[in-house]
Amino acid sequence: MKVGIVGTGHVGSTAAYALVLHGMVSELVLVDNNPALAAAHATDILHATPFARPVRVYAGDYAVLSGCEIVILAAGAGQLPGESRMQLLARNAAVFKAIVPQVMRHVSNPILLVATNPLDVMTQVATRLSGLPSTRVLGSGTILDTARFRSLLGEFCGISPDSVHAYVLGEHGDSEVLVWSDATVAGMPLADFAARRGRPLTTDVMARIDDDVRRAAYRIIAGKGATYFGIGAALARIARCILFDERAVVTACTMTAEVEGIADVALSLPVVIGRDGIRMQLQPPLDEQEKEALFRSASIIKQHVSGIGY
Known about the structure:
With 310 residues, the chain is an alpha/beta fold. It is 43% helix and 23% strand.
């Protein structure tokens, strides 16, 4: 199983490291506009393989991507402190115009996994530039936001986050929608479970968790300049769904025919991911307030996409 990563900054290199440590691939190739950086990361990660599993890890130009089943697109400008993901749009759309045709020139029918912000817009850009079916182009989307949401709910309720079923939908960014109405534990509404634990899910608690999820990236960037551990692990998780045909349900970004009246927009919904990419896209039940929030989120993405002609 061969995977390629284009862009070996913080996110790309961390995703590469996660893939190798989990033993998901037999061959990993790195490409960057700074060849020395890609080569250095490849060598460093290769030296970690004796502590994990044998993997061929090397760097090169776009030609080394030939034969890849998945190509992770992590190239682009990083998000600056105080900068919204949407402010990155113009710079990173230009980057994709350069790199996506190069990838498609050397790789036959890959699955493209987008990690570059603004994630939803860049996923739509990659879909248009690649000419691939939308089922084969997906972004990490709100998989990390969902993980943050579940981890905070698990901490509040005093249980493992794996036992919490809750989603974050829409934009991977400021307008994302935390779905409280459909959150469950052990088949019961989250609020009921929390009450049984003696931890009432008050408006103040919900507001604090919402802020901690929605503002997490900004706080991490303010503290250390970039986010990469969480998203690196998330990209490896999605890759595993594909490589092992897991058919797992995660919140990831892909083109959506229509959501809350907005047509042809890339955003995150729960999707079933397997060997061929997106097998099914789901729209969970929402209350009226969440429907309105998802409409606003889709509208924001659509507006920015329209502004650059995609």
